[in-house]
Specification:
The chain is mainly β. The chain is built from no helices and 10 strands.
């Protein structure tokens, strides 16, 4: 079974930083492009960032471009999202998902508030 476990969220003040991570298992992580997706309760999901299998191609939503950096460590089956200059509107549950089929696991809550 595909398992994707995100962690590393938390409460941070505006302007602060967080680095959620996501550990993958049950599939060959190194061969799949991956996404970070966020969702506010009651609203639809929003793709934040995408990275290809080797890490050479990265894409970002306009809302986070220049503030967020996606990366991966295929030796550790782990996906990361470095989030800097956080804003209250970044508050959401953050999930990692497999790009090909949208498989995702439990997310991690990020709250940006003073």
């Amino acid at each position: 079974d595909v398992q994707l476990q995100a962690s590393g969220g938390g409460l941070v003040q505006p302007g602060g930083s967080l680095r959620p991570s996501c550990v993958a298992s049950g599939f060959t992580f190194s061969t799949y492009a991956m996404n970070w997706v966020r969702q506010v309760p009651g609203k639809g999901p929003e793709r934040v960032s995408r990275i290809d299998s080797g890490g050479g191609y990265r894409a970002y939503a306009d809302k986070v471009k220049g503030r967020f950096t996606i990366s991966r460590d295929n030796a550790k089956n782990t996906l990361y999202l470095q989030m800097n200059s956080l804003k209250p509107e970044d508050t959401a549950i953050y999930y990692c998902s497999r790009a090909v089929d949208g498989s995702r696991g439990p997310g991690t809550l990020v709250t940006v508030s003073s």
